[in-house]
């Protein structure tokens, strides 16, 4: 993995699709299926994550959470508006499905920043962390307008993600924060009471289901610090993405700084595509990745064969063509080095199916 960013583009693309294949095979394995079933039985709260398209933001990896547990929603800068038609429909459908199954829903509304250098912060907010936090608070207010402010069933939680150490920072309703970067292994026994003090209105079962993510994050932070001590972490801090992934169903990209993932939510879809292409171009110009090409991958999930799969295929082809046109208009030199692939994803099996051109 350490050398994949510097290999020829054809090898990188082959490697990525092999990663998708291996992820799907592992996801479908009896052991993984049983592990997910056991985890969800022990921790019934459904957890969704609203996050930036930045390739450094990988919450499952940073919390040591099994694949398929956290439901991701990605967009430039973690910018969302629940008034967007498609986003609102997808989110409400997700919540209603979980609630119908008797599960509460925890929504992590995230922003990110760098403690070591503000310039490594969120490009979507021009590295203005205060503006990013203010936006997450707006999303939180919209969530309460949509699902209620009692928080008995749906709890919107604002979380920071510090990209130097992949550390979570939880915001309480009263302005208090819990910064996991300031804790260590000796603090594990205190996490539960700290969480109860920070989020007293959160249902007890939901806090119990959030706790494993915090414990996993403490373990991950310790591992990151070991990498830094061995000088193995520096490149992971900076942008090295060489793929733009448009759509949904990219759980297999559990590798930092590989792809910029653009969710199909904003009515102005061209803006995050242009921003992502600009980042890829900057990566090439800075020598962080080779300038021989990049991948544009469109993917749309489907749950049923027949009409649902046909719809996913049409949508994926549209997204691919739309993104290619936006990139060609904004960065014609970059478009000449683009390899475009179109796919659909069987949501239940996580099998990525490439479509013929």
Give an overview of the whole structure.
The chain has 357 residues and is an alpha/beta fold. The protein contains eleven helices and eleven strands. It has helices spanning 9-28, 30-42, 59-63, 85-100, 129-147, 191-198, 204-229, 234-237, 270-285, 307-330, 332-335, and strands at 46-52, 70-75, 105-113, 154-162, 167-171, 177-179, 243-247, 259-262, 294-302, 338-346, 351-354. The strands form two sheets. It has a six-stranded mixed sheet, with helices on both faces. Strand 1 (46-52), helix 3 and strand 2 form a beta-alpha-beta unit. It is globular and about 55 Å long.
Question: What would a concise description of this structure say?
Answer:
With about 350 residues, the protein is of the alpha/beta class. It has eleven helices and eleven strands.
Q: Mind sketching the topology for me?
A:
Elements: H1 9-28, H2 30-42, E1 46-52, H3 59-63, E2 70-75, H4 85-100, E3 105-113, H5 129-147, E4 154-162, E5 167-171, E6 177-179, H6 191-198, H7 204-229, H8 234-237, E7 243-247, E8 259-262, H9 270-285, E9 294-302, H10 307-330, H11 332-335, E10 338-346, E11 351-354
Parallel strand pairs: 1-2, 1-3, 3-4, 7-8, 7-9, 9-10
Antiparallel strand pairs: 4-5, 5-6, 10-11
Helix pairs in contact: 6-7, 9-10
């Amino acid at each position: 993995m350490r050398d994949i960013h510097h290999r020829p583009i054809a090898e990188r693309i082959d490697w990525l699709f092999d990663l998708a294949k291996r992820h799907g095979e592992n996801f479908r394995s009896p052991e993984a299926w049983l592990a997910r079933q056991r985890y969800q039985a022990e921790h019934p709260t459904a957890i969704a994550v609203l996050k930036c398209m930045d390739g450094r933001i990988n919450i499952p990896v940073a919390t040591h959470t099994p694949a398929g547990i956290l439901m991701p929603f990605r967009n430039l800068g973690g910018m969302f508006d629940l008034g967007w038609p498609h986003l609102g429909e997808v989110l409400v459908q997700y919540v209603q499905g979980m609630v119908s199954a008797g599960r509460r829903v925890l929504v992590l509304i995230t922003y990110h920043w760098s403690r070591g250098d503000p310039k490594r912060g969120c490009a979507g907010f021009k590295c203005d962390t205060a503006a990013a936090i203010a936006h997450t608070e707006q999303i939180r207010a919209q969530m309460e307008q949509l699902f209620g402010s009692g928080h008995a069933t749906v709890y919107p939680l604002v979380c920071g993600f510090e990209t130097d150490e992949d550390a979570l920072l939880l915001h309480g309703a009263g302005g208090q924060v819990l910064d996991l970067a300031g804790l260590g292994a000796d603090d594990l026994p205190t996490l539960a009471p700290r969480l109860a003090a920070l989020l007293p209105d959160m249902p007890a079962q939901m806090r119990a289901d959030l706790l494993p993510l915090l414990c996993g994050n403490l373990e991950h932070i310790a591992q990151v610090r070991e990498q830094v001590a061995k000088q193995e972490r520096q490149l992971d801090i900076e942008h090295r993405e060489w793929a733009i992934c448009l759509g949904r169903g990219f759980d297999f990209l559990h590798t930092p700084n590989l792809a910029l993932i653009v969710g199909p939510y904003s009515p102005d879809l061209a803006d995050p595509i242009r921003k992502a292409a600009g980042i890829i171009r900057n990566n090439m110009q800075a020598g962080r990745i080779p300038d021989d090409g990049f991948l544009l991958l469109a993917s749309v999930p489907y749950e049923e064969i027949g009409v649902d799969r046909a719809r996913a295929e049409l949508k994926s082809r549209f997204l691919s063509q739309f993104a290619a046109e936006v990139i060609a208009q904004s960065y014609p030199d970059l478009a000449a080095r683009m390899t475009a692939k179109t796919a659909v994803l069987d949501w239940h099996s996580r099998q990525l199916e490439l479509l013929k051109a």
